Structure formats: structure tokens, C-alpha cells
Amino acid sequence: MLTRPELPSPLAVVCHDAGACNVVLPWLDQPGLELRAVMQGPAAALWRARFGVAGAERHPLVGHSHLVERIDDALDGAAMLLSGTGWASALEHDARQRAARRGVRSAAVIDHWVNYPERFERAGVVQWPDEFWVSDAEAVTLVCRHFPGAAVRCHTNLYLEEQAGAITRCNARAGDVLYVLEPMRSDWGRGTPGEFQALDYFVAQRAAAGVQPCAPVRLRPHPSDPPGKYEAWIQRHAEAGYSLDRSATLAAAIGPSAWVVGCESYALVVALAAGRRVCSSLPPWAPGCRLPHAGIRHLSRSVLTPRGASARA
Fold first, then answer.
1. What is the CA radius of gyration of the chain?
2. Are 116 and 47 in contact (CB under 8 A)?
3. What is the structure's pLDDT at 95?
């Protein structure tokens, strides 16, 4: 049975991207924990939403948590570094390098199932943590494959439990569709960002997966997407029932949705855990979806399978 990690005090926490930060934040509610955090990018907004501006407004350990600006300030006297492993910044990588130079033990949280080696390299410099922390058996296997001999620990994903619990308390509206967006960082040789290719493929082929052609679709941008990225696309498709999702939280966005569609976003895993129907919209010319969860349907397989034939979903 998985358990939450026992965190040493004082603890340095450094996060930039949303994925690992979401996993880390629920772990921090531990009695007596002295905490110094560096939060930038999407992680800063998640911190403020959960703990308040300074980190003590809503945190149960008032006076024991501090939001600082510099990695060195977080590491001074720290018993351990807990960091994310995002791709959009070098912040977490730099923190692991500094911790190694200081002799501070470090653990890095991997929240997904893709690009493991790339998470720990910047400008040709590779920096492993002392321990890799994941939340499922598939991720343990991937860590062992990519980092032979590394120490890996598997802890319960309280964030996933929180989100799934909040979603299951909501009643899904029949036919309601939420499309969760994410930067694909590739155009697959076609000159258009992959996220837009997948979105267009869904528009053209969604009936093949069982999504009603007339059902309204809400688009939820990724936390790292710049404001307005999808406005022009939505305007072109507004008459077909496509609109921007403005829900305050992921759980609120997924709650009323019967379907949740995307490429390989972690939001698909959250939706699956909450019992929603989930579909990957990656087109057949793109690399296959790397999420290992058997319950995810794959639009390209549905399209390529003749009507009446069985398809792996």
C-alpha cells in the first residue's frame, strides 16, 4: 500500500511546471514541517491558490513555511531538496545541481510517463537526484529502464485522489465534452504545431470514437500556454459549439464532462480515475500516446478500424 512520503525538516521545495507541483503540494501538509519554497511559473499560481501569497495564509503550519526567491536561500540548512521535473525551465535542474554541490540530499518528482532522460539534462549537463519519486508501477519500471541503478520510491498520489474525489461528486452532463490542451513541442513535419493538428483531427473524426457530432466542446488551455493562444481557433469554430473553458480548477472543468479528450495530458489520467470517458486525439501520423492506462480510447485506432470490427481502446 502506497503512503505519503515522510518529509524531513527543514525541507527545500523547488517547482516550476504544474505537473509535479500538483503532486508535491498535498504532501506538504505535515505537522512540524519547516518549509522553504521557490515557486516560479505555473507552480507559483498553484502555491498561491493552495497556501496563500506568502505560504502561511492558508497553510496549517503558520510560521513554519516561507516562500523565498533564491534557490540558495531555500537550500541553506535544508535537510533535503524536493524538486519538480518540468521541461519549461531550468529552475529545478539548477536546484538539483546546487544541492549536489552542497551535499544536500535531493528527491525529484516525476509526474508523467514521458521524456524521462530529458528532464534531467540541460545544455548537455546531466544531474540526477539522489532519489526518483513516482506514484505508480509503470513509472517505477520507466525509471529503472532509463536510470539503471538509481534509487526510486513510489508514493501515493494525493493530488490524484483529491481531484478524482471532487469530480465524482459532480454529475456529468450527457454529451458534454472537455478538451484539455497541451503544447506538443513538435509539428510532426507538417509546419503546424502538433496541438493544433490533434485538435483539428478531433474535429474531423470525433464521431468515430463515439463523441456526438453536435455536442458542445469546451477547450481548456494548459497552464503553460500563453493567454489568447486558442482564441482565433475558437472564433473560427464558435458556431460548431467550441468555446473556452473558464473553470477555476481542473476538477471543476472535468466535473460536468461526460467526455475528456486530449493528446497525452495528465488531465486524461485524472478524468479516467474519476470514471469519465477518456480519449486521446493524437492523429495517426503523430507518435502514439504514451500514457500506459488501458482505459483510454485512441481516436486514431477508432478511425482506422472498419465499422463493426473490434478495436483496442
1. 20
2. no
3. 98
